[in-house]
Fold:
Amino acid sequence: MKRVGIVGASGYVGGELLRLLLSHPNAEVTVATSRKYAGEYVFRVHANLRKATNMVFAPLSMKRLTEECDVVFLATPHGQSAKIAAQLVEAGVKVIDLSADFRFRDPSLYEVWYKWKHPKPELLQEAVYGLPELHREEIKRAKIVACPGCMPTAAILALAPLARSGLMDPEHVVVDVKIGSSGAGVAPSMATLHAERFGVVRPYSPAGHRHTGEIEQELSALAGRPVKVAMSAHAVNVVRGILATCHVFTDKEVKLVDLWRAYRGMYGNEPFVRIVKDRRGIYRLPDPKVVIGTNFCDVGFEVDPHAKRIVALGAIDNLMKGAAGQAVQCFNILVGVDEKTGLDFYGFHPV
Amino acid sequence: MKRVGIVGASGYVGGELLRLLLSHPNAEVTVATSRKYAGEYVFRVHANLRKATNMVFAPLSMKRLTEECDVVFLATPHGQSAKIAAQLVEAGVKVIDLSADFRFRDPSLYEVWYKWKHPKPELLQEAVYGLPELHREEIKRAKIVACPGCMPTAAILALAPLARSGLMDPEHVVVDVKIGSSGAGVAPSMATLHAERFGVVRPYSPAGHRHTGEIEQELSALAGRPVKVAMSAHAVNVVRGILATCHVFTDKEVKLVDLWRAYRGMYGNEPFVRIVKDRRGIYRLPDPKVVIGTNFCDVGFEVDPHAKRIVALGAIDNLMKGAAGQAVQCFNILVGVDEKTGLDFYGFHPV
Amino acid sequence: MKRVGIVGASGYVGGELLRLLLSHPNAEVTVATSRKYAGEYVFRVHANLRKATNMVFAPLSMKRLTEECDVVFLATPHGQSAKIAAQLVEAGVKVIDLSADFRFRDPSLYEVWYKWKHPKPELLQEAVYGLPELHREEIKRAKIVACPGCMPTAAILALAPLARSGLMDPEHVVVDVKIGSSGAGVAPSMATLHAERFGVVRPYSPAGHRHTGEIEQELSALAGRPVKVAMSAHAVNVVRGILATCHVFTDKEVKLVDLWRAYRGMYGNEPFVRIVKDRRGIYRLPDPKVVIGTNFCDVGFEVDPHAKRIVALGAIDNLMKGAAGQAVQCFNILVGVDEKTGLDFYGFHPV
Amino acid sequence: MKRVGIVGASGYVGGELLRLLLSHPNAEVTVATSRKYAGEYVFRVHANLRKATNMVFAPLSMKRLTEECDVVFLATPHGQSAKIAAQLVEAGVKVIDLSADFRFRDPSLYEVWYKWKHPKPELLQEAVYGLPELHREEIKRAKIVACPGCMPTAAILALAPLARSGLMDPEHVVVDVKIGSSGAGVAPSMATLHAERFGVVRPYSPAGHRHTGEIEQELSALAGRPVKVAMSAHAVNVVRGILATCHVFTDKEVKLVDLWRAYRGMYGNEPFVRIVKDRRGIYRLPDPKVVIGTNFCDVGFEVDPHAKRIVALGAIDNLMKGAAGQAVQCFNILVGVDEKTGLDFYGFHPV
Structure:
C-alpha cells in the first residue's frame, strides 16, 4: 500500500486520478489539493464521487506532501510542476507528473516549443517519458515519470510501429488530431462555452502545436533518424476522446501484411493497446467512442497504394490513457504491481 | 458461483448484462443468445468488449438454457419472455426478466395497458417486482424477478417517499420523462436516425404510455389508496440517461424538512439511491449526466408553495439502474451475495 | 424606412436582431451598441455576419439613440432597460424591450417575482405585452412593447386556447420546460462550460422561476379568473430551442374535437403559429428541432382521459419567436408593414 | 421564370432544393418526385416546410419532367442520373445533376473509381463540372451541370489557389475530411443509428474514397500537371457541415503573404467564398458551425515552416454549398440571373 497525493485534484485529470486511486487496492489517497476549492467537499466538484468519498480538498502544502505521501501525482499546469517536483525528489518522494515539464530529454527543446527555460535541467536525467509501451523498464526505476498527454500518446502509439520498422518517410508525416472539450480543462471561456463549442469542427491549432516536439523526440528515437511531424489539432463535438489520424508517405511498396507484422510485433502483448482493423462492422477501425472511460489505446491502419500512403490511427480517452489512466498504469509499474490494477474497466456500448 | 445465461444478448441491455456479468465474481456466463448475430463474436457487436471476451453469440436453445444455467436473464421483447420463462421455471431455473411480462400482479392490467392476454397468469404469483428498494425480501425467494424498466424505476423511486408518507394528492401526479436514444433499442428507423434524432426535444408519447400502469401499481401499494399517474415521455439529445420530473400537488402545507424526513427515512441505508439536494453547485439536483455508467438512482426534491406543488426528481442511467444494473442487483440479492457486487463503478466527470 | 438602434447587440439576442434587421426592407440599423466590444467589428463576435456587414459596435450613447433612431430595441439585462426606456420614450423614440422590465401591468408583481421596485411604475401604462397573438391591436399604438421571453411565449401560446375556452382547471397547471444553452446567454461559467453542459438533462429551476408571474398574468386575463402556474425549467443538450410541455388537469370530459376547435379558433389565421398534431410521422407533434431559425411557434395537444389531463405543447426557437424574431414581428406591427416582413425563413431539414 | 423539376425530392438534398426553389423568384417548382413517398404531402417528410407548401410528392414520370420543366435537378443516386439525364437532354431540358455521373471528363475514370462503365460517355462532352468558382463561363452554356458533392467542393476550393500558384508539391497532398451525419442520407442503418453515431470520431474511409478522382481532375487542371490526393474521411458528431483540412508539403519557402496573394487573387470577387484568417477570435479559421444553412465556403490557411507544410482549410454546409445551394447557384448562372438569388441567407450565431 502506497500513500499517494494528488496536486491539482479539482481539475478533470485530478478528478479521474481521484476516482481511480480511491478504489485502487495498492494506494491510499492521503492528500488531494486544490487552490480554488480548498476546504470544499470533493463531491461538490466531482459530482460522480458523491457517496464514494467524504474527502475535502486541501491547500497545497509541501510539508504534507513530503510527510504523508510516497508517490505524488502532479496534475498541475506547465511550469508549476518543475518547482514542486524538485522539492519532492529532494525529499525522496516519487513523482508522476502529468505536465510537460519533464518530457523532453534535451532541455533546449523547452526553449523551442515552450519559449521557457527549464529551471532544473539536471532533473531531466531523473525523468522518464511515461509511455509504458516504450519505456516500461525505465519507469520502474525512475524518480520522475513524465506522462505524455493525450495527443502525443495517441500519435506516438499509432506511429511507433511504422517508425521502428522503417516503413515511413520521416519528412512527410501528418498528424491530424480531433479532440473533445474536456481536453481544454475546467476554466470557462468563450471558446468553451456550450453554445459556441457545441457542433464545431474547429481547427484551433493548424500548425506549431507544442506537443509536436515530444512526438518527434520519441519517433526519432524509434526510427534512428530525425522524424519531422506536421501536426494540426481540431476541436470536435464530444466531451471525451481523441483520434489521431496519421498520414505517412512511403516510397516502399507496403502491403497490409507488413503492417500487421509491425503492429503485432510491437503490441501483441501490450495490455492496453488493441489492434482494431476488421473487415466489417461499424467499429472496424479505432473510434474514441469505444474507449471512453477505459485505459485502452485502439490502433489501426490502412494502406493507400494510390497515393503511396499509410494511414495510422490511434484512439484514446484523453483523460484516461491520455492522462490519469496512463499515470496509474505508470504507478503500477513503479510500485511493482500488476499493470492493470485499478484499470480493468471496459467501456460502454453505447455511450 | 452461478452459471448464468443471457437471452437477447446483442441488444443494448444484453450488452450491459454481458459487461457486468463477465467480470462478476459470482457469475459465469455460459450462454449468450442472439437471433440476429448467432455465430458472431460478441465484440463485433459490443465493440467495447474487444479483448474482454472471445465469446460467440449462440442461437436460442431451451435445452442449453436449462442444462447450463442456474439463472437466466431475459432481455427479450414484451410477449416473448412469458413463454421462455414458463419453461425455465418449470425446469427449476431462476429467471430475471427485463421485459414487462411479469410486472403486473393483476393479469387484467395486461389487457388494459398492452392489449394482450397473459398466457400464463398463474405464473404472476411466482413473480416479484424487481425493485430492491421496495421488494428486497421478496426478491430473495422469487422464482421470477420482473425488473422494472427505466421510466418506472426513475419515477417510482422519485415518488415513493411521497406516496408512503401521504404527502401527495393521488389525483394530480404528473411524471414528465426525458430520455436518451439508447432507450429505443438497436433497431434502426427514421425516428432514430442520427440526422433526425440529434438535437430533438421530442414529445413522443404525451399520454397513454404503457409504463403508467406499473408506476400506479407500486405507488398505490405504498399510498394505500389508488394513485393516478399522468405521464408524458420526451426524447432528448443524449444516448444514455433518463430524468423523471414528477410534479405532485398537495393540499397540505409541506416544508422542506418534511421531505428530508420522508426521503432519508426511505433511502438512508440504500446502497444505490443518493439524495441530491444541495444549496449550490451545478449538480445540486439529480442529473442523469452524473450517473452514466453507474447503478445509482439520484433523487431530489423541491417545494413550490406558490403552486402548492412538490417537485420530485429521479435520474438514472436507463441501461444500468433502468435495466442491466438493476437486474444484477436483483441477482446479487437472489443468490445471497453483497448487493453491490460488480456494481461498484462510480461514473465519470465529465462525460 | 425606419432608423433602428440595438442596445446590447453583442449578445445572442442582439446578434439575431442584427441579422434580421440588416436585411429588413423597412429598417436601417444606425446604431448597435456593446459595452464589451465597442470599437470591434460586428463579424468578430457574430462570425456568421462576415461579409454581411462591416459595421462596428458603438458604446452606449443616449444622444445617438435619440437622434439617430426612430425605434430602439433593448436587448439589455433586467433592470437596465427601465432606465434607458424612460429617456427614449421621453424623446419620442419607440421602444421594443426584450427584458422583463415592462411586462407586468401591476408594478407590485416586480417585488414578488424580482425582489425589485420598479423605478418608473407610471411607464407601465405605456407598455404593451409584446405577444402579437394576444395583443396585436395594442402593439400598434404602444410606446413600449415589452416582448416576452422564450419560456412565457412557448407556455402562453400552448395554453392560451385552453385558458380562453375554460377547459382547464386553473389550480393544476404544470409547465415543464426544456431549453437549450443559448438561453443562458454569452457569459462563460462552470454551468455553461461545454464539458459540464454537454449531455445534461439538468433541472436548474424546479420551482419559483421568475417567468411564472407573466404567464399567470396572461392566462388569467384569458381565463377571466386567477390561474396558478407550476413551472419547472430544465437544461437539455441543444443550443437553440425550447419545448414547453404543459400538463393541465380538467374536470370536464374533453374530446380531441374540443381541442381542435379551441386551437383552430385562436390560431387559424396566425402567420406564425402552426398547429402540429398529425396521426403519423416522427414530427407529428411540436419539436423545437423543426423551428430552429424560424419565427414559428408550433403548438400541439393530446387528451389523457385516464388521468383527466390535457397535454399542451409549444415549441419555439428561443432566440427567434422567443426573442429577436418576436421583436421584429412587433416592429412590423408597430410600423405598419406586413407582419411577416423579414421573417419568411423556413427552417432546415435536418439540422 | 423557369419551370423546374426535382427528382429525388424526399432526400435531404431534395428537401433543401425544395426549400430554396419554392421561394426562388425565378423558379416555379412544377414536379417533385419521390419513389418512397409518392402521394404524400411534402411537409410530412420535410417538416420544416409545413405551411410553406401543400405540394405532394409525385412518382417519377419522364413525360411530366420533359413537358412541365425547363430545368431538372437530379438528386438521384449514382448510376440513375445518367439514364434520366440522357432522356432530358434529348428533349432539350437542361439538367443540373447532383450525382457523380457526369463529373469526370475522362470516361475511363468511372471504371477506376466507381467500377462502373458509363452508359453514355458521349454525353460527358455536354457536361460541365458545376463548381462556379472554376467553371462559371462554361456553366452558362452547358446542357448538363454536374455539381460536385460536399467533399470535392470543400477540398478543391481550399486547395485551388495553391494548385494554381504552383506552391504545392503535387505528390504529397493530404485531404483529411470531417463530416456530419446528413451526408450519409436518409436510409436508416446501424452506422447511422443515433445511439451508435452520436459522439463518434469515426474514420470510415481512410483510403480509396471515390471522390478522390474528381479532386485530382480539378487540381491537376489548375496545376498543369498531375496531382495525387491522399484523402481520408471521418464522421463527427454533427448533422450538417464538413471541414476539409488539407496538408500540403512544399519545397519552397512559403510566406503568409504569398498565401494571401494566392487566395485573394482567386476569391477576391467570389460571392460565396470568404477568406477566414484572423489573428484572434474563436472563429479565426473556417469552422462549418459558422456556415450552417448558408451557401458560403469559408477558406483559410496557415504556414508550418517547421514541417515545410501549408495547411489549407475549407468549411461548408454539406447540403448547401456541398449540394443544393451549389446547384441553385449553378441554376442562377445557367438562367442568367444574379448568382446570389435565393441564396442570401446568413447563418446563425449560435447554432
User: Anything to note?
Assistant: Residues 5 and 30 of chain A are 6 Å apart (CA to CA). The two ends of chain A are 34 Å apart (CA to CA). Chain A touches chain B through 38 residues (CB under 8 Å). DSSP finds twelve helices and 13 strands in chain A.
